[in-house]
Write a structure and sequence with these properties.
Two copies of one chain form a homodimer. By secondary structure, chain A is an alpha+beta fold. Helices cover 51% and strands 24% of the residues of chain A. In chain A, a hairpin with a 2-residue loop joins strand 4 (54-61) and strand 5 (64-72). Chain A binds chain B through residues 59, 61, 66, 68, 80-81, 84-85, 90-91, 113, 117-118, 120-121, 123-124, 127-132, 134-136, 138-139, 141-143, 174, and chain B through 59, 61, 66, 68, 80-81, 84-85, 90-91, 113, 117-118, 120-121, 123-124, 127-132, 134-136, 138-139, 141-143, 174.
């Protein structure tokens, strides 16, 4: 919880009133490796801050699962469209390690935005940050071949290559596990 | 200009002070069909509101241009990563029709966020909206075959199919113009 408050405070100093309100409002939870934080078809009604652990976001296409991203300690975890529009999610979020999270519900967050206007500054800056990261991933996906996408991932998120099982990395890169192994062997 | 103020006011009523400040700060410009609003390599230092017209966002890959999106009247136009990080853009923005725009510079926008904290509410809501649309496009791109992507585009943005030249639509869908013609003929 201290990590979350520090994270927010670094973007814009929190007033005492807001800090107290957050301490009353923020919930905490732990989920085991392989457990689901969100299942497709449900509405994502909490925004999570990951204190410890690792999660993947994926959707099902035909018979296979497609990873769209990974989230680790210090990251926020939501299904974007489902959370912002409060509609059923097309994607699922699953733990890849035992994970410790703090969360605010969608309704509580809207109340905070109304009652503590200063929090809109923080919300705006965080949304801009994650939007930029998402655009960067999209660009990497459109621009590069599989080997280049792997190099880019290794360069920008080296810790993911170490922690995420190869099958999920391959799925994120849009290639088979065999192709991923060939790319790694060639390097 | 009235259209822009109305657009912002619909998200959250603007105070008189903010309205007056915006009327002093917002600039206006017109660009001709085929002219560039932003060239790759330059920093995107203005956020634009399109009052009239149509633009495409694209980047160069090898010998070809890849369209990443189209923006029309009522939309905001920026290169996300370049604007939010104030770094050189990897993409260009070009008019596809004669276009009328209003804009705020990055520096002026940061000052507005500081001096009129209420504007952070509007900035946050708009960022959430465009982030959600971007995620939706990314999902459509990952999920579907070319014919499905075309159907999805026609369903969600029918006016683009009418106004954007086929070569740019094909580029956005990641297919050749010949494949796009075959898909259209089959329907």
């Amino acid at each position: 919880m201290e990590a979350l408050l520090q994270y927010l405070n670094n973007i814009r100093p929190l007033s005492d009133g807001l800090k107290k309100h957050l301490m009353r409002t923020v919930g905490s939870t732990r989920i085991k490796n392989r457990a689901f934080l969100l299942k497709a078809g449900r509405v994502c009604n909490r925004i999570h801050f990951i204190e410890e652990g690792l999660l993947r976001c994926f959707h099902v296409k035909g018979e296979s699962e497609i990873c769209s991203w990974f989230m680790k300690e210090g990251d926020l975890a939501i299904s974007i469209k489902s959370f912002f529009e409060q509609k059923p999610s097309y994607e699922s979020i699953q733990a890849l390690e035992n994970t410790v999270l703090h969360y605010i519900t969608y309704i509580d967050l809207q109340l905070i935005y109304q009652e503590f206007p200063e929090f809109n500054f923080i919300g705006r800056v965080l949304t801009e940050k994650y939007y930029t990261l998402s655009e960067q991933r999209l660009y990497a996906m459109r621009m590069q071949r599989a080997a280049e996408r792997y190099s880019y991932l290794k360069e920008t998120s080296p810790e993911l290559i170490k922690r995420v099982p190869g099958s999920h990395i391959a799925s994120y890169l849009g290639i088979t596990l065999a192709t991923l192994s060939r790319i790694k062997a060639r390097r």
